[in-house]
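Quarterly update, task 2.4: flavin-adenine dinucleotide-bound model.
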Amino acid sequence: MKRLLVLLLTAMMLLAGCSSEPAPAETPDPTEPTEPSEPSEPTETKMTAGTYSSVGTGFKGDIKVDVTVTEDEVTEIEVVEHTETNGIGSEALLVLVDNVVKYQTAAVDSVAGATVTSNGFKTAVKDALTQAGADMGKFNATAVKGELKDETIDADVVVVGAGAAGMMSALYIAKEGYSVVLLEKTPMVGGASAMAGGTLAATNSQWQKDAGYEDSSEMLKERLLAAGHNKNHLPTVELYASIIGPNFDWIVSEEGGEMPYKNEGAGASFSFDGGGAGAMLKLKENLENAGVEILLSTEATELIVEGDAVVGVKATGEEANYTVNARSVILATGGYGNNRDLVPEEYFAFRYSGHSGHNGDALEMIKAVDGATRNLTWLNKQPNTMILPSGAPQYTNMGVNAVYKMSGILINENAERFAHESGDTWELMLRMEENERQYLLMDQENYEAFNEAMANRNIFNADDPDKWTADDYEGQPVYKGADTLEELAEKIDVPVDALKETVAKYNEAVTSGSDDEFGRELTTTIAEDGRYYALEMSIRYSTSLGGIQINDKMQVLNTSEVPVEGLYAAGEVVGGVQGDLYLGGSTFTWAMTSGVEAGRVVSEALAE
Ligand SMILES: Cc1cc2nc3c(=O)[nH]c(=O)nc-3n(C[C@H](O)[C@H](O)[C@H](O)COP(=O)(O)OP(=O)(O)OC[C@H]3O[C@@H](n4cnc5c(N)ncnc54)[C@H](O)[C@@H]3O)c2cc1C
């Protein structure tokens, strides 16, 4: 409506002969002698003051904005509606709104970890400004920032990276009464931890014992080694298995800020409302209450080294270059998945779905002390992935888990099944890598179950799949619907006869009770009629599995395996907990519990 009003006003002004353009100068009398004129200043284009509405595409759906301008300035931006993830997209939007108003340009930096949200927001703002008649040369220009001053901060500890590991260690140290500075290079806390499911495994914790769940450090160790195909670093696995229980107990204790985890009956694991993003928001609140100084948009660039010891870090923020002097430094910078120089080439065939702040900064920083790394050849690949309209890869685990209990199957470009769909993740991925493409094939009942499971976790809206499967929909995801298998085969370009044969063979195995060719337990047939659907599935990679070498005191080791004085590491930046594939849920738990551990050992060292 507001937009309509503005357009109407503009049209009326034009009809009445007025416009926001400057009036043409009077024509000079050719008989009058003329003074040589000064070159005139370029006239600035004025905006038509008002509020303009627009929409951009975010990670999960539309981002609607109202942009209010005077003739010269953007004065206010209201995000009227969005469905971005609470704690990630929602936080990024706050930052973006502030920055557009502060720097008077729509070309502000995207928020790392929320690039798709940022792009959708900026597109909407640019459109609104165009409607306002803004000089888009000016409003598309890079933000002009002031000169950086030099600042020195003295603290007991500086922690680099505000994800689960960094925030947990900072909290522990602050609770022990030491001063902590937490540096985060993006404008918001959370890192990849905010993107995770947020479930904590609680092996050996009091909670798990109370729940009567049978588990032990030895069993966790076996699970990690099995998932990682024994490529893990055994002492680091053993360290994890020994600290997980007591540190989980601390996280949910009063001291640990009573992180409100709850047992949903799974026994081994405990979940957090709002997933990883919810947990990170709560953790931020706990840090603020504990008096931790958090410097956002501040990137640690190098270690300060005196002799063989690390005594602080240098960092660059929006307004200052910092020298942070500290007795101990904890590196918690996450992985290296977003650094093409560090990611092995074989991964380039897949999409990266991790955090954009994972550039392996700490791996570069530790070179100053001859720090050692291991297993950098591996990142975690995962098969159950769909592509959202924004182009972002999205896990579908909750959706596929629902339909693999029914009759959802995977087919390749030849319309053939190729793996046990819900079997070993590694095997499934290897088989997928042999295909040109693959689809999740569903009948109507499966389609509804898949979509419901995904919408329940806010991955997409309940009405999105009907939009995506409409005949006139183009773009991502490739999600096709058809009344017959013949029609579906044509839409996804697979051989019709092969598709019918695959479905018939699967149904025959179910009805005859014979063993599935891939070993899956078959329960339900694919419907004989009704609509059929195919959703394209792919592989993504995100979490880094290699990283810094540490000892059992969380100290960074140099290449001679000697601990570097004053330097510690926690979370995904540490290499070797996992092998070539991670055990589901265990990387988030490692980040949380190793963060507590780093906090504990550093506090003990400071007390000596
Ligand atoms: C989409 C997705 C889903 C996942 N789901 C699960 C799951 O369900 N279960 C599970 O166990 N694991 C999951 N993981 C993995 C898990 O989330 C991570 O391994 C873990 O949370 C990492 O925690 P962290 O604290 O080590 O790193 P992060 O949480 O990433 O924090 C590191 C922080 O350091 C910052 N940083 C980097 N360099 C610098 C620098 N130079 N200066 C200042 N700051 C810097 C980064 O910006 C980032 O904010 C998932 C990962 C992704 C990407």
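Highlight for this quarter: The two ends are 67 Å apart (CA to CA).
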